[in-house]
Amino acid sequence: MILTSHEDMENTDSKTGVWLGEFTDPYYEFIDQGYKIELASPQGGKPPVDPMSLLTENITASNRRFQDDQAAQHAFNSTKRLEEVDASAFDAIFYPGGHGPIWDLATNHTSGRMILNTLDAGKPVAAVCHGPAALLAAELLRPSFLAGKRVTGFTNTEETLSLRASNVPYELETRLKDNNADFHSATIPFTAHVEVDGLLVTGQNPLSAGPAAKALIKILEGQPVGVS
């Protein structure tokens, strides 16, 4: 699982980072199915956590489980630097969201190469909410990578409704479409929606994090996967 290291937003003193539930929901989906997880980030160490994801109304059952899980907290607080990770040793990559990835992972060449090499090796890659911004780094390294790929991510409408549209350098939905991705989303904002295009899995928003992980697990286990 690759997490953002970026916490600053534009035109505000508010902070961002990892949306905690988008890490914990998938993390425990994988753990409960017996998968071993390694955590990495551009800068290593403890990733910043979006304070809004810690508000009571945004706390999930997996958040509460994480609070009592010393092993998981130790792993989260001591992520490896991306350059220290051999992506070929893993069966899949998962990118949680939070706004941070639209700054650092969107332009991180190490992460972009990991995405391309993983997919080229016939292994799946998944990203949720603003995590699909990491796909933009793969696009930088391989122009037209996104062309025609069926994806989702945090929508322009959701960005506006979350009152953060003026605090980000670009809207993810627009940037994905600008790179000719085939973007789809749920009819109702902030409801779960997952897209699967071959080995690429994307989730729209926080509620899509667990379902995106489940879709990735189905691919790993050779089961048929639909969209939702």
Describe the structure.
The chain has 228 residues and is α/β, with parallel strands linked by helices. It has a single domain (20-221), classed as Rossmann fold (3-Layer(aba) Sandwich). 32% of the residues lie in helices and 10% in strands. A hairpin with a 2-residue loop joins strand 7 (194-197) and strand 8. The protein is globular and about 40 Å long. 50% of the residues are buried. The model has no long low-confidence stretch (mean pLDDT 97).
The gross shape turns out to be globular
Number of helices: 8
What name does CATH use for the topology?
Answer: Rossmann fold
Please give the order of strands in the largest beta sheet. Answer: 3-4-8-7
Unreliable stretches (pLDDT < 50, length at least 5) are none
**Strand-residue proportion:** 5-15%
SSE run: HEHHEEHEHEHHEEEH
Q: What is the CATH architecture descriptor?
A: 3-Layer(aba) Sandwich
- Helical content, roughly? 25-40%
Mean pLDDT level: 97
Q: Tell me the number of structural domains.
A: 1
- Which CATH class is shown? Alpha Beta
What structural class do helix, strand and pairing data support?
Answer: alpha/beta
Number of strands: 8
Q: For the CA atoms, what is the radius of gyration?
A: 16 Å
CATH superfamily: Class I glutamine amidotransferase (GATase) domain
For the termini, the CA-CA separation is 22 Å
Largest sheet: 4 strands, mixed
GO biological process, one term: methylglyoxal catabolic process to D-lactate via S-lactoyl-glutathione
Family: Belongs to the peptidase C56 family. HSP31-like subfamily.
InterPro entries: Class_I_gatase-like, DJ-1/PfpI, Prot/Nucl_acid_deglycase
GO molecular function, one term: transferase activity
